[in-house]
Design goal:
Helices cover 37% and strands 22% of the residues. It is built from 17 helices and 22 strands. The structure holds nicotinamide-adenine-dinucleotide.
Amino acid sequence: MNNNEQLLNYINGQWKRSNASSTVPVHNPASNAVIATVALSPAAEVDEAVRLAQAAFPAWRSTPVVERVQPLFRLKMLLEENLDALARIITNECGKTYAESVGEMRRGIENVETACGMPSLIQGYNNEDIASGIDEHMFRQPLGVVAAITPFNFPGMIPFWFLPYAVATGNCFILKPSEKVPMTSQKIFELLEKAGFPAGVLQLVNGGAETVNALLDHPGVRAISFVGSTPVAKYVYQRATANGKRAQCQGGAKNPVVVMPDADMETTTRIMADSAFGCAGQRCLAASVAITVGGAKNSFTEAMADVASSRTVGYGLDKGVQMGPVITAQSKTRIEGLIGAGEAEGAHVLVDGRQKKVAGYEEGNWVFPTILDGVNPNGEIARTEIFGPVLSLMHAANVEEAIAIVNNRAYGNMACIFTRDGSVARKFRYEADAGNVGINIGVAAPMAFFPFSGWNESFFGDLHAQSRHGVEFYTQTKVVVERWPLEWSRQF
Ligand code: NAD
C-alpha cells in the first residue's frame, strides 16, 4: 500500500503528468499509509483542458445521439467487469467497507444506464398550426464544455451523477475529483478511454481550490456541477453564476429522522443503524438526528445503544467489518471535538466512540459509533453537520412537535419518518421541509431516474443532479417557429 506514484491528468485522450508546483499525498484512512500523490493542477492546465474540450465539441455535438450513447453502453459493461477493482480502490482511499463501495458503484452504474436512454430523454416537443400553416418546435442543444467538482465521500458514484448526462446530451465534460480520493477517478478514466469516447470529450484534471477557481473563472466553461460542503457549495455557486455560468451546487446536510411509537422497532433500529453509521456517517443522506415521539423513546434508545456498541469497526477489506474509518486525522479530531461540544451543551454520551483503536491499524482515523442522548434541539450541535458516525437523540411529545424540530434547521437534504400509520406518514411527507423524504426508509437516495432533490442550504441552483434534471441542466432549449407556404414551392 506504500506508494508515492503521482496520479495523472487525462487531457485530449492522453495521460499527462501535471507540472504543478504543489502535490498532496493520498492516504489510506485505515492506516494513514501514503498510497499515491496527486497534483494540484494550476490554471494553465485547466485552460489547456478547456481549450481542447472546446475543440472536440463541434464534432461530438453533431454526432447523432444514438451514436453518442454507444460508448456509454460499453462503459456500463466495463464498470461491471471492473466492479471488484473499483470497489477495492474506493475502500482503500475512502475508508468505507467493500460492500459499501460495491453499493456505491451500483448507484453510479445506474446513472450510466439511465443516460443510455438519451435518444428519448433529449426529445423536445412541438405543435402544428400554432397559427394557420405555422408550426413551433422545441429542440434541446448541448451547452459546450461543462465541468464537475466532486467530494471525497462517493468517489465512484458522484462523478456519474453528471458525466453520463453531460456527454450523452452532446457536451464535453471535465472532472475535478476530490484531491483526498483521486485514485477512483483514475481507474474510471482508464475505463472511459476503453469505452471509446473521442479525444477531448472527457478530461480529468486533478487539483484543489486553485484548480476549481480556474474552472469557475474560465469563459470556456458553460456550466458547473458541484457536490461538497455548504460553505464551498455556496461559494462555487456565487462565483460560477457571477461569471455567467449555469450552476447546480449540492451542499451539506443534517438529516432528521422521526421515530413514532407505532414503528416496528426491530426494522427501524436495523435501518437506522445503517443510516447513521454506514459509510462511517459520511453520507450526505446519513441520519444524524433521531427524534423519538412519545413512547418510542425508551425502546428506540435502548435498541440503538445496543447496535451502536456492537458494530464491528475496521479496515473495509477485512472480513466481517461493518464500518470503516473517517477520511482524515483532521476529521477524527473535528468529530471528537463536536462530541465534546454536544456534551458541554448538556447531552449525555450514551455510547462513546472517541479515543478508539483497531488492532493492526493503530494509525487509522477511528471514530466508533457514538450516541448523544438528550441533545438540545436549539443548541449548536443540533445544527452542525458532524459528518461522522454520531447520532443525536431528541424527544418530542407528538408528531407536530417532531415536525417542528425537523423544519427548524438550515439544511434540507433529507427527512425520514418510521411509522405504521398512513395518515401520520402523509402529514410528514406533506410538511417536511426537505427535498428527499423517506417513509420507513433510512437513506432516501433517489434512483438515477429521479432528481437528487436537496433543498435550502443543502442545494444552490434549480435543476438537480441525475434524471431529466440532468438533461435539462446540460442543454439549452431552442424554439423554432416556422412557416412553409405551399404556394412558394409551386414557384419551382
Ligand atoms: P468539500 O466542500 O471540502 O470539497 C468538495 C470539493 O470542493 C473538492 O473537490 C475540493 O477540492 C473542492 N474545494 C474544497 N475547498 C474549496 C475551496 N475553498 N475553493 C474551491 N474548491 C474547494 O467537501 P468534502 O469534505 O469533500 O465532502 C463532504 C461534504 O460534501 C459534506 O458536507 C457532505 O454533506 C457533502 N455532500 C453533499 C452531497 C449532496 O448530495 N448534497 C453529497 C455528498 C457529499
